[in-house]
What we know:
Number of strands: 0
Radius of gyration: 18 Å
Strand content: under 5%
Helix content: over 70%
Shape: globular
Number of helices: 9
Number of domains: 1
Amino acid sequence: MNFHDLFLKPYESYSSVQIFLEAVATLFGILSVYFSIKKNIWVYPTGIVSTVLYVYILFNFGLLGDMMINFYYTIMSIYGWILWAKSSKDHIHVEVSWAKRKEWVYAGVLLVLSLLLVTLVYYYKPFIDNHFSMSNTQLGLDHLDWANWLDVFTTSIFLVGMWLMAKRRVENWIFWIIGDLICVPMMIYKGLGITSIQYLVFTAMAVLGYQEWKRFLPAKKASIS
């Protein structure tokens, strides 16, 4: 497939408003990652603009399962905003640190719970996408393709990444890098070419973010508990 088929053809059926909103959501998503690299609390208001726009976009496309996940991202962003606001001395920037062992345990539990929760959302996705009607609806996971299963995995990775970022832990960037890389081909498959480019940019920015946060910290100690 050529560039036109991958990135432009899906947009032939989109309205100008839909294309504009996806572009704005992408811009604010990139701004959010930039502010995150700078340890700046504006990561959250800009991120919320992006996720709220995606909630609207996905609702209009009838992708209600994906919409609910982005709604959850919005709630997690509000949670992170509150934590960063409490931890910021100048109300703008925050201090960061390595994750503790017990936080890795919490992260593991959150990952498993997230996998179960997102799988449950996809189980009920036919019901959700049918505007919460059981008419001609069959529940289950048989309708999932490879992109859907990757979505389950990446969503869980991102939720752990969001939690670690809210806790201001350097390792949050590792989860973003993995998830962003997976999302590049997945978004192309879903017909969201602009968003796939966003995730490619996110990957590069996440690598820079990890290096930037790590630069101001001492080497990780094995005795952290």
